[in-house]
């Protein structure tokens, strides 16, 4: 390391420059915002503390890279070595451990290496430091020992809590919400998905700007020549907030437009009376795998949380030959930040408007019942309670047979399958067939052989009860929708 690089490393005091949201703010607000590049001195009386933090840094050589890292690179750099912290307020010790194990999976999904995890028993999180000042000191030791560069808390922390805990731990502190948002940002593929995530991030960020007021412009600093351009903190915060709000309003309009487009498509499906099935479930339950199994579609399957963020709708056919659509959905997770639920509501509405929900749960997970409950809460949240639900206990190949038995016993309408081996899939297809709404009108029609297309339509959209090839044409008895019944009208024999 040259001396110049260590100087700039000092300037980029770790804890202060590294809040996910502050750089995110930079990225979200794009290049039209000229951040001031102040480095030092915005918060007086903090100088010693800050050099202290710089001394604690364990990751070498970041300073030179930081100036032009992309968001993703930033995250990989920053969420490299993490220590997890949970506050256990209710439930059993096992519940607390499961929750922290899930946080570890989330952190790994975000690209972090989990070094350690601690759980603290408290009646409620400490208003100042989340875990209490004594524990915060212990945490600091743990951070030092393990060489972690980040602490991830299993909850949503107030801006004040984040700052206090950072002051003690002397490394960056992020909460579960920020982590989920980060993963969402990484995985969203469609324009709408990306826009929704960006909006949720801004929403999350907005109230936290004030808490960081005095040091925000310094946090934004990345260059070594920034001191001269430093602006007055509070005024700048106000400008930033206004710009973020403007950007959010614009984004909301754009999302509304995109939603109209999707609504049109959905109405088209409804007009054609194609029944729809939504695959919902906890993240990593195997929803995409099941979709693949059921339709042979090549949907991304990853052993990562939130591999799917954009709704994927596939055409499928029941064993009896009826067409329906099968939609993959975003995975649910406990403590999904409420504004994120809001942001994803449009995606989840699809679930509410489907004819059947396949609620996939990972049978090999330590607490599948909890996952079921968490997902149902969201299903209730988006007003989809009226939609019939089949519980699909997946990963039967890897699950404890006793757990499977228990789930199938408790859940009234449940089936155990393995998307991996294919076991239970035929039975599931049969259930889908019988659960899908049936066309209402029963007709008999004699279709001349020139009307092959209409015959095909009856097969695809309706339910053929009998079919006979006569000398005059195809004699069909079928249940069909009103539209199709009208189309068949001319061929319905006047008298039997
Ligand atoms: N053993 C076993 N593993 C499975 C089965 N189905 C899926 N998996 C694995 O579980 C992991 C998650 O599968 P996905 O289909 O991506 O899960 P998902 O519910 O779509 O996940 P998200 O989109 O991230 O919410 C992958 O590693 C799959 O290979 C199964 O039946 N048995
Ligand atoms: Mg998926």
UniProtKB/TrEMBL annotation:
Gene Ontology MF terms: GTP binding; GTPase activity; metal ion binding; ribosome binding
Classification via SUPFAM superfamilies: P-loop containing nucleoside triphosphate hydrolases
Positions of the UniProt region annotated as Disordered: 1-23
Pfam families in alphabetical order: GTP-bdg_M (PF16360), GTP-bdg_N (PF13167), MMR_HSR1 (PF01926)
Amino-acid biosynthesis listed as a keyword: no
Cofactor requirement: Mg(2+)
UniProt domain Hflx-type G: residue ranges: 275-440
Highest taxon of the lineage: Bacteria
Sites where the protein binds GTP: 281-288, 306-310, 328-331, 394-397, 418-420
Subunit structure: Monomer. Associates with the 50S ribosomal subunit.
Protein's UniProt name: GTPase HflX
UniProt GO cellular component terms: cytoplasm
UniProt record similarity statement: Belongs to the TRAFAC class OBG-HflX-like GTPase superfamily. HflX GTPase family.
Keywords per UniProt: Cytoplasm, GTP-binding, Magnesium, Metal-binding, Nucleotide-binding
Organism listed in the record: Streptomyces pacificus
Summary of the function given for this chain in its UniProt record: GTPase that associates with the 50S ribosomal subunit and may have a role during protein synthesis or ribosome biogenesis.
UniProt subcellular location: Cytoplasm
Major subcellular location class: cytoplasm
Organism ancestry: Bacteria, Bacillati, Actinomycetota, Actinomycetes, Kitasatosporales
Residues reported to bind Mg(2+): 288, 308
């Amino acid at each position: 390391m040259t001396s110049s690089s260590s100087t700039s490393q000092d300037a980029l005091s770790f804890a202060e420059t590294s809040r996910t949201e502050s750089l995110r703010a930079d990225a979200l607000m794009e290049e039209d915002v000229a951040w001031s590049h102040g480095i030092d001195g915005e918060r007086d009386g903090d100088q010693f503390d800050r050099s202290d933090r710089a001394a604690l840094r364990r990751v070498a050589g970041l300073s030179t890279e930081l100036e032009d890292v992309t968001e993703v690179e930033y995250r990989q750099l920053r969420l490299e070595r993490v220590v997890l912290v949970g506050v256990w307020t209710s439930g059993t010790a096992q519940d607390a451990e499961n929750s922290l194990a899930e946080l570890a999976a989330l952190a790994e999904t975000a690209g972090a290496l989990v070094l350690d995890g601690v759980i603290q028993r408290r009646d409620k999180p400490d208003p100042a430091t989340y875990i209490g000042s004594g524990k915060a000191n212990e945490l600091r030791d743990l951070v030092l020992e393990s060489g972690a560069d980040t602490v991830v808390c299993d909850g949503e922390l107030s801006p004040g809590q984040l700052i206090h805990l950072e002051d003690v731990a002397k490394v960056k502190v992020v909460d579960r919400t920020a982590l989920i948002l980060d993963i969402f940002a990484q995985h969203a593929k469609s324009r709408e998905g990306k826009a929704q995530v960006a909006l949720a991030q801004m929403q999350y960020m907005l109230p936290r700007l004030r808490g960081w007021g005095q040091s925000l412009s310094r946090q934004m600093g990345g260059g070594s020549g920034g001191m001269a351009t430093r602006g007055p903190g509070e005024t700048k915060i106000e400008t930033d907030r206004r710009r973020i709000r403007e950007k959010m309003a614009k984004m909301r309009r754009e999302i509304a437009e995109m939603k109209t487009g999707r609504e049109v498509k959905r109405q088209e499906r409804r007009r054609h009376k194609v029944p729809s099935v939504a695959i919902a479930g906890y993240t990593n339950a195997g929803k995409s795998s099941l979709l693949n199994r059921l339709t042979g579609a090549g949907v991304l399957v990853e052993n990562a949380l939130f591999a799917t963020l954009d709704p994927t709708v596939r055409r499928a056919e029941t064993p009896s030959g009826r067409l329906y659509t099968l939609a993959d959905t975003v995975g649910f997770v406990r403590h999904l930040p409420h504004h994120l639920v809001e942001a994803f509501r449009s995606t989840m509405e699809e679930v509410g408007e489907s004819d059947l929900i396949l609620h996939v749960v990972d049978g090999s997970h330590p607490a599948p019942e909890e996952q079921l409950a968490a997902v149902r809460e969201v299903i209730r949240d988006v007003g989809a309670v009226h939609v019939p639900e089949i519980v699909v206990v997946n990963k039967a190949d890897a699950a404890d047979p006793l757990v499977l038995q228990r789930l199938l016993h408790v859940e009234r309408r449940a089936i155990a399958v393995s998307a991996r081996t294919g076991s239970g899939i035929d039975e599931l297809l049969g259930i889908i067939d019988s659960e899908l709404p049936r066309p209402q009108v029963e007709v008999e029609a004699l279709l001349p052989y020139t009307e092959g297309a209409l015959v095909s339509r009856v097969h695809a959209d309706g339910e053929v009860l009998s079919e006979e090839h006569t000398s005059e044409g195809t004699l069909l008895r079928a249940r069909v929708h009103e539209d199709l019944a009208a189309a068949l009208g001319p061929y319905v024999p006047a008298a039997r």
